[in-house]
Amino acid sequence: MRMFFLFILVFLYPMTISGSLLSESILERSEVQAALRRFTGVEHSFLQRGLKNASLYLPSVQDSVRKKNLPEDLAYLPLVESAYSVQAFSRAGASGLWQFMAPTARFYNLRVDFWVDERRDPFKSTDQALRHLRDLYRYFNSWELALAAYNAGQGAVKSAVRRGNSRDYWELCKKHLLKRETREYVPRFFAAAYIAKHPHEFGFAFDGGRGYPEFETLTLEKPIDLTVFSKRSGIHLDELRFLNPELTRLMTPPDRSYSIRIPLDSVDRALTVYLNLPAEELTGAARYRVRYGETLGAIAERFDTTVTMLKLINNIRNPRKIYAGRTILVPLHGKKQGIIDTRPFVPVKDMDAQEIRYTVQRGDTLWEIARRYGSDIETLIAINGMGFNSILVPGEEIVLWIRTAFRR
Question: How confident is the model over 252-270, as pLDDT tens digits?
Fold first, then answer.
């Protein structure tokens, strides 16, 4: 009965809109119908959350799609990638609305480092994701194959095309030459895009999007502490973090100028505050290795900061649990510049990471464990006070930070 209902909906809405990837033949496919049933059934809450998140970003994404003269339905791809959450982070390490992996993001000139992760910038990541999709389409001359390659990688799809002697995505799926995730990915995209265009017919709440809050950018020639800036400017810290989700710390990068987004109605006040920041306020940051017997209080006193600030920028919940050899980030005031090495160090635990303990098995190496759990080797050795050449002993425990998806 539900299948009949879905077919009726397909024919109620002719897919003749210029630039759409959706067509009657696509929507009639059993794979797409199965995805429609899942979204209206067990995955209803997932797609509804995605539509709710999309209300902020979809209008600007649609505008970018139009400017690049790409099919309009590509604007709905983040629904299946991230539920339209800039904070989404997969176990494999993909991040942001478009779930870029770090190497691909860097290839498309997105900055991913200790200070900034532009995969979470809704504007920059959208621009580069659409560029990536356009490149894939130009290579395969098929949107189904381009979408499959976006999910599985260009090499995997190219190999499937060669082994299957076909450039028909659906034929490659029938031959099981693409992995199951990719065989389901493209139908899920078509189903999600169709539902997003006709949400009420499927029992979803969606008004097409209210759009992103208005903002202006302020170019900073020196770094600022967001907590200090928030307090002095009267702009709520959560608002600054929302407008600048690519910032991974509570401060802007100290190594270069940076353009920060400011609420439109607060630009004048923000500029005044920035231009008049006293020298004793935060103007940089550095790494510091904790010494035996040191406390956060002693470190804070040494660097003219507070325990609260050290806890915030290092995500330390229990200040009594810092240990000798751990590297932490310390804010530097003007008079403290140059005291210690200011090169950035490896990332510390984010709010969306889960800490687990792993018991070393025979044959384990740090490199293999880091790869298995989607970590980077620098983070792993830093949080465990090890070196690159440390020898693991079977039975010992090491700490791992596993990052999970965070939904707004």
Answer: 887 678 999 999 999 999 9
Cα separation, 390 vs 289, whole angstroms: 18
Cα angle at 107 between 102 and 110, to 5 degrees? 65
How far is residue 31's CA from residue 135's CA, in Å, rounded to a whole number?
26
d(C-alpha 90, C-alpha 336), whole Å = 39
CA atoms within 13 A on the CB side of 114: 20
Q: What is the Cα–Cα distance from 197 to 205, expressed in whole angstroms?
A: 11
3 state DSSP class of 353: strand
pTM: 0.70
Q: Are 9 and 164 in contact (CB under 8 A)?
A: no
> Are the CB atoms for 96 and 86 separated by under 8 Å?
yes
| Domains of the chain by start residue, with CATH | 2-202 (1.10.530.10), 214-277 (no CATH), 279-345 (3.10.350.10), 353-403 (3.10.350.10)
The 10s digit of each residue's pLDDT in 341-373 is 333 334 445 555 677 788 888 878 777 787 777
Q: What b/e readout covers 328-338, taking b as 16+ CB neighbours within 10 angstroms?
A: bbbbbbeebee
Radius of gyration of the chain (CA): 24
Is 181 catalytic? The answer is no
The C-alpha torsion from 273 through 274 and 279 to 282, rounded to 10°, is 110
Name the active-site residue from 31, 81, 118, 184. 81
Q: How far apart are CA 190 and CA 10, in angstroms?
A: 12
> Rounded to whole angstroms, what are the CA distances from 51 to 78, 115, 250, 337?
10, 30, 29, 47
Decide if 140 contacts 167 (C-beta within 8 A): yes
